[in-house]
Write a structure and sequence with these properties.
This protein has 3 helices and 10 strands. By secondary structure, the chain is mainly beta.
Length: 138
Amino acid sequence: MGTHRFPLRMTRPWRWLLRVIGVRRGASQVDLTDDGRLVATFGRLSVETRLDNVGSYLVTGPYRWWKAIGPRGSLADRGFTFGSSTHGGVCLRFVEPVSSGYVPGGRMESLTVTVDDPDRLARALDERAIEGRDERRG
């Protein structure tokens, strides 16, 4: 199958703000690797897990900017977001929480990524027998 790369969407007016924290094209994407890993990078931040640890996904959005832009953790569901756009994204739900210093308790249960083409990432996950659904509004 090979490695598939899904760049994060960089839109105005957020591009300049994200660049300040190291988030830019080439340094912010989701990779599904040919050796069975998911590697998400957001500037200097990264999350890595085995693809078989991705139990399901949700395509969501659009988002309000104050809930979407930047790296953000959630106390409610121990999830994390790599947010570069308000257009929408994909929430990856993990079977086993992934070790991370980004969320309270050090283990994240999900990661939302605002990839440029959420439908393409969803298709790639479907091809790997990872179940998901589209919950976009609007």
